[in-house]
Amino acid sequence: MRSTWRTIDRVLRRDIALVALAVGAVGVSYGAIAVGLGFAPWVPILMSTVVLAGSSEFLFVGIVAGGGSLLAALIGGLLVNARHVPFGLGIGDVTGKGWRRVLGSHLLNDESAVFALGQADPDRKRAAYWASGIGVGLCWPLGTAIGATAGTMIDDINAFGLDAMFPTVLVALVFPALRDRSTARIAVLGALIAIAVTGVLPAGVPVLLSLV
After folding, report:
1. pLDDT by residue (tens digit) across 171-194?
2. CA atoms of 203 and 178, how far apart (whole Å)
3. Is the alpha carbon torsion for 76, 16, 123, 177 positive or negative?
4. What is the pTM of this model?
5. Distance CA 101, CA 34 (A)
6. CB-based contact 65:157 (threshold 8 Å)
7. Main-chain phi, psi angles of 203, to 5 degrees
8. Which residues neighbour 49 within 8 Å (Cβ) at sequence distance 6 or greater?
9. How many CB atoms lie within 10 A of CB 110?
């Protein structure tokens, strides 16, 4: 890890560290929200470690807490994480072989893929991927554990406005992509579909329809 960290320059190290810390901060809100919605603390902590995909985890707890079925939540999570397929094709050469490939595949997320794909030099690409992947892989579960612990000690977690962080984060993630007109049209269509069928179909199904 030390040699990997030295391969990238100071600016890239700073950017990776800041992103990892930001992910940890969102993890705090995720853990607190999940506990506030009635989940046992170990559930978000386990998911943050095993799944390691914030958007699908938020979607899962949201659908289940809203009364949706586990099947709907699982399908929603799989659809959201389907973007990892092209990510994997794009960074398949940086994970190595054997146990490194297994670990590297687990550390595949939006942040590690973006940092890796942003590097032209193969060594920097590999170093950026592993540094970002490990940073997120540590900060996300740690933040979730802190949030889940705090959620057990706070009577009304919504009083802190943490429930607003999920939609805020999602808007922040998708907003840059909406500059593309084609993407914006698809996003608006998905939102309209979800709004139209909300209240008519079971909880979680409107989200699945909008994703499709």
Report:
1. 665 677 677 888 788 888 988 988
2. 26
3. positive
4. 0.74
5. 31
6. no
7. -60, 135
8. 141
9. 18
